Amino acid sequence: MTELTMSVAAAEFGRDMERCFHTVADLIERARARGSRLLVLPEACLGGYLPSLGGGTESEEARQRRLRSLPPALGLDGPELGRIAALAGDLVITLGFCEADGDIRYNTAVTLTGDGILGSYRKVHQPLGENLCYAAGSEYRAFDTPVGRMGMQICYDKAFPEAARALALDGAEIITSLSAWPTSRTATAERLEDDRWTQRFDIYDRARAVENQVVWIASNQAGTFGSLRFVCSAKIVGPGGEVLASTGTEPGLATATVDIGQALDAARGGGMYNLRDRRPEVYDRVVARHGVVGRPALPGELAATHA
Q1: Which of 219, 197, 90, 231 is nearest to 153 (CA)?
Q2: Between the CA atoms of 299, 38, 49 and 161, what dihedral angle is there, to the nearest 10 degrees?
Q3: CATH number of 112's domain
Q4: In the structure, what pLDDT confidence band is assigned to residue 149 with cuts at 50, 70 and 90?
Q5: Domain count, the chain
Q6: Measured between alpha carbons, how far is 167 from 173 in angstroms, rounded to an integer?
Q7: Domain that holds residue 204
Q8: 277: burial class by Cβ within 10 Å (0-12, 13-18, 19+)?
Q9: CA–CA dist 227, 229 (Å, integer)
Q10: pLDDT-derived band of residue 284, with 50, 70 and 90 as boundaries?
Q11: Phi, psi of 181 (to 5 degrees)
């Protein structure tokens, strides 16, 4: 059995790309100094997130103004990710950015090393007015990496149990959840620890880990951007739902060392293997809107269909 040291960041990123690269390089150096083989950075860490979240209808003039405020749109094969790959070397790094696909923009996460991109993901679930700025992704798929089979999701995705479950059923042992998760817009609390969206963020992280019996790594933005104040709370959660390391409500880098195989065996080997013991024939109405019925695949079966 092999232990894996992992680090996850709560850090501040804005529109200044050179400053973003400097922050990423600093976090890489700190993670390496701790012996980490995996580093998880926040959503939108190359160019920052949206300055506000809207919703409802808006005029064409307001829409164009909103689109002009977006972060720079980057290509998967562009020099920006190439620059991160050069910094990564043999370190596995997951990070978020605004992806350009022709004229369409996506809120995207990638996992890469110095050898290139290992997996990419376009955010499926969009909160409030994010759909006014980004197109939505359409799938969850796990992928193999030098540190194990991984899955990715972004921010609001963690509020949907089906998202993490889809990745777990595709064999993901580690799920990275990248966020630009802000404080509540109403009934705000002076202390981040008391904010109800901070508490919601923490509940989702532990619940998604324990219900899928996976290692869950949650990054987040820090500080403020536009009208948003971020809750930090980056953490690594074990497959039993235990928080192994956390930044709390401060910027920082949380690090934990875990024997992934041993941790998964311990969580799943005590008579409670959640993925095995599901009763999907009872759950049809959960997914009936999309006409999906029958038994979803066990871990590895979906992977085989993608091979």
Answers
A1: 219
A2: 20
A3: 3.60.110.10
A4: very high
A5: 1
A6: 9
A7: 3-306
A8: exposed
A9: 7
A10: confident
A11: -90, 115
